[in-house]
Amino acid sequence: MVGDFSSDAGFFVAVGVLAFLYSVAALALYCCFTALYENNDLVPIGDFAVHVVFVILWLAASCAWANSLSGLRSVAALDNIIANAPDCNEKFACSKVTEARFGKLVSSVIFGFLNIFLWASNLWFLYKETRFYKDKQPGEIANTSN
Predict the structure, then answer these.
(1) In whole angstroms, what is the distance from residue 112 CA to residue 16 CA?
(2) From 60, 106, 112, 143, which residue has the greatest number of CB atoms within 10 Å?
(3) Quick check: pTM over 0.70?
(4) For residues 101 and 80, what is the distance between their CA atoms, to the nearest angstrom?
């Protein structure tokens, strides 16, 4: 088979595993160490920065895996396999049996791009926890009713 698509698949899986491990650690931080998160300004900023990195990683991994899936589809096409098979010649007639199914692989690409959206949309909620957002909030405006 022409082409090796394992590195892109491995990168995609590695980003998924790292995202899962970070999510578990962040959940523990949010639930068990709430005071640390609320009292230390650097923790929300660090959380925000890690989320930015994960958005970039998910984008790179999803694009790489989508490109590899396209290459895998072209390599695994039955016409291509029959044309490149050494046993398929004048002596032996080869015919198509079934086409390969890529539905589960396509769904993994879709979920990869969905992860970009989820991690990026979570940035807004994390931004509201940082001091950059809190410093921009205006003070209480006095109610002057006549």
Answers:
(1) 9
(2) 112
(3) yes
(4) 15
Contacts of 61 (CB under 8 A, 6+ apart): 8, 11, 12, 14, 15, 16, 112
Q: What is the pLDDT of residues 4-60, one digit of tens each?
A: 888 999 999 999 999 999 999 999 998 998 888 888 888 888 989 999 999 999 999
- Give the 3-state DSSP-derived string for the chain, with helices as H, strands as E and coil as C: CCCCCHHHHHHHHHHHHHHHHHHHHHHHHHHHCHHHHHHCCHHHHHHHHHHHHHHHHHHHHHHHHHHHHHHHHHHCCHHHHHHHCCCCCCCCCCCCCCCCCCHHHHHHHHHHHHHHHHHHHHHHHHHCCCHHHHHHCCCCCCCCCC
The C-alpha atoms of residue 124 and residue 110 are separated, in whole angstroms, by 22
**Spatial contact of 55 and 123, defined as CB atoms under 8 Å apart:** yes
